[in-house]
Amino acid sequence: MYRGLFPLGGPVPERDLVGRKGFVDSLVNRLLEGQNVMLTGPRRIGKTSLAYEVLRRVKEDGSYTASVDFFRFSSKKDFATGLIDACLENRTGISKTLKLMQDKTKILTSGAKFAIKLKDLEISLGYAKKSDDELLDFALQLPGILTEKDKKHMVVMFDEFQDTARVAGPDIFKHMRSHFQIQTQVSYLFLGSKEGMMNTLFSDRKEAFYRFATMLPIPNITDAEWVPYIIEKFNSRDISIKKSVAKEIVKLSGGHPQDTMFLCSEIYYALLETNSNTVTLEYTELGYDRAMIALAPIFDTVLDDIGNRLHARRVLYQLAAGKNVYPENVHPNAAKRAIDFLISKAIIEKKEKGSYAFVEPMFKQYILLTENQ
Known about the structure:
Low-confidence stretches: none
Order of helices and strands: HEHEHHHHHEHHEHEHEHHEHHHEEH
CATH superfamily of the largest domain: P-loop containing nucleotide triphosphate hydrolases
Number of helices: 17
Helix content: 40-55%
Radius of gyration: 24 Å
Largest sheet: 5 strands, parallel
Distance between the termini: 41 Å
Number of domains: 2
CATH architecture of the largest domain: 3-Layer(aba) Sandwich
CATH class of the largest domain: Alpha Beta
């Protein structure tokens, strides 16, 4: 589906993964060599786009792949069915194999070839009668079963992995690891948007997934990577743009992956509406204003969510204004609790030497605008 000059609203294609080639190469190599990897970071920074490109490359290499997003699930059965379907698609080429098996008419017309693909996996039309626990147990075993039977390597990706316990209960991590650790031809890629929870799951000795995966930080995209990409994209539509203007775009967006794409998109549509073919600083400012208006409801929701948290909004303003995040009239312990809360919500992040920064730089500017009105 055509999605405009600058991709928005979902995983981006390989050509738009700005500054990620080396990191993707490393992930592919690690996973193909059998290493498990954990990636963490707030939503909208490109984790899922990275993961899908990795899966595409792994599949191109000849391995099986499966992707599961816990954000879409509300029950243990949902999780089990989703994982089974994702695994079986490697054989059947059908995204919802289990649903097809429930439809006796469709399965009869699918022919013997379909039945043969599943026969040795002991899957039958009676699977729906299994308890949720039995179904989940089979789902967790299936990657190992497939790789052994088909002599294939497999990479399984779990998105929003920190939500697993919400979906399948508090004991699910121990149950998962008991299966995963004996699967010799399966590698796992874990993604999560709640950095604190993900780090605890993989680095706390008390947790079932302690040191089960290598924890890799997603590298920032540099100005030197953004600028030529922006110039090339606009030039592809016969739109001229100076290097200095492209740098200003990155400065305004802070280099945040999705916000940079969104700002460029707003500039592009402003050019289309006025039949112009040159990106100027004036159009950049216009695009920025339009982007901020569009992002305002999202930012307001974030502010509403933290509104009842003592001192959180005050700390945000202090940080946005370049002031000490420990206000003089707020007890340091109370300010620290507010800071920890904002980090847990992926609104700010801790940098070196105890300093902090906004995860989304355009939100910083919104804070300054709203607080000064």
